[in-house]
TrEMBL record:
<comment type="subunit">
    <text>Part of the 50S ribosomal subunit.</text>
</comment>
<dbReference type="InterPro" id="IPR019906">
    <property type="entry name" value="Ribosomal_uL6_bac-type"/>
</dbReference>
<dbReference type="InterPro" id="IPR020040">
    <property type="entry name" value="Ribosomal_uL6_a/b-dom"/>
</dbReference>
<keyword id="KW-0689">Ribosomal protein</keyword>
<feature type="domain" description="Large ribosomal subunit protein uL6 alpha-beta">
    <location>
        <begin position="96"/>
        <end position="173"/>
    </location>
</feature>
<dbReference type="InterPro" id="IPR002358">
    <property type="entry name" value="Ribosomal_uL6_CS"/>
</dbReference>
<dbReference type="InterPro" id="IPR000702">
    <property type="entry name" value="Ribosomal_uL6-like"/>
</dbReference>
<feature type="domain" description="Large ribosomal subunit protein uL6 alpha-beta">
    <location>
        <begin position="11"/>
        <end position="88"/>
    </location>
</feature>
<dbReference type="Pfam" id="PF00347">
    <property type="entry name" value="Ribosomal_L6"/>
</dbReference>
<protein>
    <recommendedName>
        <fullName>Large ribosomal subunit protein uL6</fullName>
    </recommendedName>
</protein>
<comment type="function">
    <text>This protein binds to the 23S rRNA, and is important in its secondary structure. It is located near the subunit interface in the base of the L7/L12 stalk, and near the tRNA binding site of the peptidyltransferase center.</text>
</comment>
<keyword id="KW-0687">Ribonucleoprotein</keyword>
<keyword id="KW-0699">rRNA-binding</keyword>
<comment type="similarity">
    <text>Belongs to the universal ribosomal protein uL6 family.</text>
</comment>
<dbReference type="InterPro" id="IPR036789">
    <property type="entry name" value="Ribosomal_uL6-like_a/b-dom_sf"/>
</dbReference>
<keyword id="KW-0694">RNA-binding</keyword>
<dbReference type="GO" id="GO:0005840">
    <property type="term" value="C:ribosome"/>
</dbReference>
Length: 190
């Protein structure tokens, strides 16, 4: 069995978890929002006394390795949903580079990243965005959502506009991320 899958999930106050046995769908509702997740039929879901547990159904036709993988996977997905609707997730990105700018009007974000044109990105309504540009400091984008997977996808999309490069250290980085720098050709020639 999966050691992650065996851990119970404690449901905090103000969060309700419902499971529909006919469709195998878990819905989690809390102060930050509502999320749904379909669960494989080879996993048994139980919600008792404010604790959620997952067990492998030994009678299902799915092979053993796949069942063990599903056991930990669905436990982690539901745990991320419970944490998301109760506390939420935050990511902060930093634009490192001369002339890099970012601004937003609602959920429409405009990037100026050294290309000949500005880049516009319309974020889904589930994601809250805030941009900060101060003099002599790198511009910052703060993203917040209850859906961890969606937030990671948005961050990956934003980073793809200007990936961090190792020679000058420019690009879009997570705040606090350190880029391993490389020396250029001239340093190697000496």
């Amino acid at each position: 069995m999966s050691r992650i899958g065996k851990l119970p999930i404690i449901v905090p106050a103000g969060v309700s978890v419902n499971f529909d046995k006919s469709t195998n769908v878990v819905s989690v509702k809390g102060p930050k929002g509502e999320l749904v997740q379909k669960i494989d039929p080879s996993i048994k879901f139980t919600n008792q006394d404010g604790q959620i547990t997952f067990e492998v159904d030994e009678n299902s036709p799915v092979n053993v390795k796949q069942k063990q993988a599903f056991h930990g996977l669905y436990r982690s997905l539901v745990n991320n949903m419970v944490v998301g609707v109760s506390e939420g997730y935050k990511k902060t990105l930093e634009l490192v580079g001369v002339g890099y700018r970012v601004s937003n009007q609602g959920n429409l974000v405009e990037f100026s990243l050294g290309y000949t044109h500005p880049i516009f990105l319309q974020l889904p309504k589930e994601v809250k965005v805030e941009t900060k540009s101060e003099r002599n400091q790198n511009p910052i984008i703060m993203l917040e959502s209850c859906d961890k997977a969606l937030l990671g996808l948005i961050c990956a999309k934003i980073r793809s506009f200007r990936k961090p490069e190792p020679y000058k250290g420019k690009g879009i980085l997570f705040q606090g991320e350190v880029i391993r720098r490389k020396s250029g050709k001239t340093a190697a020639a000496k």
